[in-house]
Predict the 3D structure of the following.
Amino acid sequence: MVVIATALAQGAQMALVLLLPPLLLGLVRKLKARLLSRRGPSLLQPYRDLTRLMRKDVVLAPNASALFRVAPYMIFALIFASAALVPTFATGLPLSAAGDIIAIIALLASARFFLALAGLDIGTSFGGIGASREVMIATLAEPAMIMIVFTIALVAGSTQLTTLAGFMQSPQVGLRVSLGLALIALVMVAIAENGRIPIDNPATHLELTMVHEAMVLEYSGRHLAMIELAAALKLQLYLALIISVFLPWGQARPGDGPFVFGLGIAAFAAKLGLLGALLALFETVIAKMRVFRVPEFLGAALMLGLLGTLLLFVSRTL
Amino acid sequence: MPIVVGLACVAALLAVAIAAIGGLGSRAVYAACLVISSVGLGVALAAITQEPSALTLPFGLPWLGAHFRIDALSAAFLALVNLGCGAASLYGIGHGLHEPEPSRVLPAFPLFIAGMNLVVMADDAFSFLLSWEFMSLSSWALVMAHHRDVANRQAGFVYLVMASFGTLCLLLAFGLLAGSDGHYAFASMRGATPPPGLAGLILILVLIGTGSKAGLVPLHAWLPLAHPAAPSHVSALMSGVMTKVAVYGFLRLALDLLGPPAWWWSVLVLGLGGLSAVIGVLQALLETNLKRVLACSTIENIGIVFIGLGLSLAFHTNGMGVAAALALTATLFHAFNHMLFKSLLFFGAGAVVEATGARDIEELGGLIHRMPATTFVVLIGSAAIAALPPLNGFVSEWLTLQAVLLSPQIPQWGLKLMIPAVGALLALAAALAGACFVRAFGLTFLGRARTQEAAGAQEVDRVSLAAMAMLASLCLACGLLPGLVIDGLAPAVRLLIGTAMPPQMNEPFFSIAPVAESRSSYDGLLLFLLVAASASIAAFAIHRLASRGLRRSPAWDCGFPDPSPLLQYGAASFAQPIRRVFGTLVFRASERIDMPAPGDLRPARLEVTLHDLAWETLYSPVAAGVEAAAERLNFLQFLTIRRYLSLVFLALVTLLMVVALWS
């Protein structure tokens, strides 16, 4: 019985991380528009965009290779697989033992690897500039992320997200300086990894400032839909990561009744909405920075993560 | 007995070398090497779990003989060496036909393989050093194969100097280990425990001796010169296999023969490993010669291997057996992985050079359309070396990171501060490796062809492709079933540390859990299936339900398509952001822009200057000192016979006095 319940919960989680992200994106866009006193598009607009893109023909450059056509599905699958591993409304799901938080980061790195290669495939300057900047940002964001993982894993004694979330709900945690540093660093990395303001602007097509948009400039139709969906999934994934490490309250566990699972879904949706609202607020009040200021921003995240880890090597209670 | 078969393989290789001098054809030589390596591989795999087998031959020092022995550690490395050599021989069957001067490569190739086999099997100092020098000299002969190129001659010279220097350090280390009684057999060295100060000195000598062969910073300067100079399958052997023989030398001497480690040893090893990892990959990122990119990335991977070694030394000193076993397993696993993907990538580079005649990334591009099979296997190799799941490179780096996470219990403050910093360097190196191989793969195989040669490239022959495909499938297999490799390495780890990681093949669904599943686990197979299933279902569903139409039309490129393929992003421009962020610190990179005034018709120029700090602060002063001393002593060449005789007499008297005072 418990096996069927956990399998159902795993299925529900995978459906949730597939279907919810466009709504999150719609919410962020709507709130940003309201903050700028615009009416903004409907909350469901991202779904409409995606279905419209999926129905359109793909327009492909003459020298596009097979890699260019496979990459969107690979990127989507890699991000979807990592999103399926992050606990959202319940912990202890069967798939979560397949990879810990380091594996999740590495799966996202694989997705970026293919995205950057796809950017180089047509041989245009914009693809190149986007790929080049993307890997530069990644070389700083990934070590910062690993340092954050070190900090969290040293506190909880595990890199397994289920164990981590369980530990964070237990009274052993307390207020720790190192966790505070890790939270700040994680938010900074999440902003950079998702190409949000101030690192990159998801709404821009100003050529010289864009990173992610430059890489996917040659994509169209269903390929573009997959990439847009993957980007939305990634945003949701990072927010779910923050939720599951720092705000794990209300998550259901294996063996709980359906009511607790329902409560978990409601709690997750509320937390996601809250973080989305904070993101919209933050993006409205801050300006985008120059590309070569990004290393300073991410270098600060790396240093915060390293500091958090060092504190834990010095004393287990900090 | 495995050792008899192992030595018989070496003898057979020597016979092949002699036959090659006698004019045996290229295909026959490589086929013979392939057969012998396969036999060696089989023997080594069988010997991993067996009792050690030893043999003493009546060569070498008169009172000692030549000892050879295969224990679990030797067997593990023998398997690595013979797998790498077998793949290189298979590739050579196809690739070797295009060799312009086969008579310079064919005799030295089996000798090189024989040398590496002998080092791993040697069981006394004399045969170890002899085999080590044999390996160095035969590889030097291969570096000098294309000696008409001045750069290759220079690379050969630097390699020879560094190899001799490394052997000198090992010679001194063995001298100190053997003590004044001359116990040159490994068995008696293992029994003796040198005093701590002396042991520290020996460790430093061993680190210099093996580190200079492995390419550890700052002894790495020869590596990016020498490894690419050889034919590609030999480059693969040098980068993929010979550096692992050096790692074996370090393990054998430092962990097996030298007695209990002191904690500061690990600080040294960790520091050098971390530096090598980051400096190596940064150098690879700024390099535009494809084979040199790969050689520089070898420095990075050796750095990662030495980080693992340093961690296992640190745990071993403090009696944390399980953690030490985890770190050492990660080290050996990464050494094995690096052999697989570096050989594969060098084969791929060889295929590219063969097809286009160009080594510079700036002269390539668009090869995916001309060489699809090569592109596919090289893509697997690039993803593996960039430590991406579900391939093998990720597993070994994941295990190393798990070992880092076990280290806060270490009591020494020096290590407490050092290990997190090294962990950050490891993560940085992994991320930079991703950037490096996006650049190397993307600019070589994707985009538009930058030259006529690249546009007209032809796919390589099937035998070469088979060698690459074999290594690529091993990369995938070791990533999907890492438990198999971990369990295979367990006897070697137990030999050095006393404990090993818990058996992993018992875990459900082929997952691995280094300590406990609640702490951390990873399941490459499940992740691979999940990703493959979601990608196929997504593609199928969209093609079925939404759209499957496709139209070809010129690239959009924001409305201003580039007229010439040369306007694509090049290798230097791709690396520019990273050069600005990291290069100013590590290479003191500077840019100078020469912009002509309005109306002036000369072209604008951008000049980038990079400094190799190791070369400028270490090698150049030493070379200048040697040259100055040589100038000073030059007059000794022009003395009369009377003066020479008196000099000889003086030297004799001095030496006799030294001996008299010593005893």
Chain B has a mean pLDDT of 93. The longest strand of chain B covers residues 53-57.
